[in-house]
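Form P-L/3: holo structure prediction, ligand 2-acetamido-2-deoxy-beta-D-glucopyranose.
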Amino acid sequence: MPSCRGGKAGGGGRRRGRSPAGLRWLWLLLCLARRPLPGQAGAPSELRVRVRLPDGQVTEESLQADSGSDCVSLELRKGDGTLVTLVADFRQEVKIFRALILGELERGQSQFQALCFVTRLHRNEIIPSESMAKLRQKNPRTVRQAEEVRALEHLSMDVAVNFSKGAQLSSHIHNVCSEAKEAIYTREEDVKFWLEKGVDGSMFEVLPQSADLPDLQRCRLCADRWKPCICSYALSIEWYPCMLKYCKSRDAAGKVSSYKCGIRSCQKGYSFDYYVPQKQLCLWDEET
Ligand SMILES: *[C@@H]1O[C@H](CO)[C@@H](O)[C@H](O)[C@H]1NC(C)=O
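OUTPUT (holo model):
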């Protein structure tokens, strides 16, 4: 599975919880977490949690964090076999969604289709990698459901990203999107943000829009398999730590201070619209 390890391996010198606050938070993080697993400083940490899907099925979700390269990755398999991966690259302010969609062999589709959607990572969308690396759970058999359901986000992916140049945006694109070389999408508004940060613009190519092609339709309304259209793909991150919880403590002198003592979990869906040169690249998007 694609972990968070980008090109650069995590730096050698690991910070340790030297301050009392740091130590305490190591111990108290989460009703998920009591004690850090021994050893493994520098290795990305992995947490496996069981989560309930909307159809009632239970799946295992893997959460990895690498505070050295300041990144987090989540992966889960949906009931239909689709593998959904999210990599959050905090350093580059980039998040990458990847879907590996199983093809339907009887319809002459190859084994799977890979899609990559790259968009801006905002602050506070997900807890920091350092905190994620410290998450532990008491009971791995517990089936989790997110405490908060966040609104479905519609994203219009109007720009293609050149795979061979994508590493300049995030080193993780190379690992995560290698099966989706021809299907890496982003948005003009995200591109603007990255260009202001000094990212090289030559990796981006604006895709045809409805304004350029007046008869560009949604694929689900298009009858001709060979015509270009706007495809829609939706995915959901079923369970992720979206916020830190703080608790208060009072010292001997009565002074109140707050410390990190757990996480809040969220579920969030995303719906991506993007251009395909032929409707047959978008066969799941059919009117039923
Ligand atoms: C992506 O960039 C490479 C290197 O500059 C170039 O050779 C290739 O043609 C580009 N691919 C597309 C699809 O534009």
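COMMENT: The first strand starts at residue 45 and ends at 52.
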